[in-house]
Amino acid sequence: MDKNKLLGVIASAGENCSDAANVIGVTRVTFSKKINEKDGASFTQPEILAIKNHYNLNAEQVDSIFFAPKVS
Question: What are phi and psi of 55, to 5 degrees?
């Protein structure tokens, strides 16, 4: 996943990670684990759909954020 793209989308909407956590119904800590892929945490399909709908993302944007190869 490309966390920088997701953070950019969130910031472009004038929101922060706490707002995005509320969109998918998780705590800020859980959202942080998911976005940083810590402790095996990752976004579920329903969470990705909620983010897609809330931030009005198209399929290409979703692919480039959530299904991009991990950059080290």
Answer: -100, 10
Distances, alpha carbon 57 to alpha carbons 6, 10, 30, 38, 60, in Å: 10, 11, 22, 25, 8
| CA gap 27, 67 in Å, rounded | 23
Backbone φ and ψ for 60, nearest 5 degrees, come out as: -65, -40
Task: For Cα atoms 41, 19, 22, give the angle at the middle one, nearest 5 degrees.
Answer: 60
d(CA 37, CA 27): 15
pTM for the whole structure: 0.91
Calculate Rg over the CA atoms of the chain: 11
What band does 68 get if pLDDT is binned at 50, 70 and 90?
confident
Catalogue all structural domains in the chain, each as residue range(s) with its CATH number. 3-66 (1.10.260)
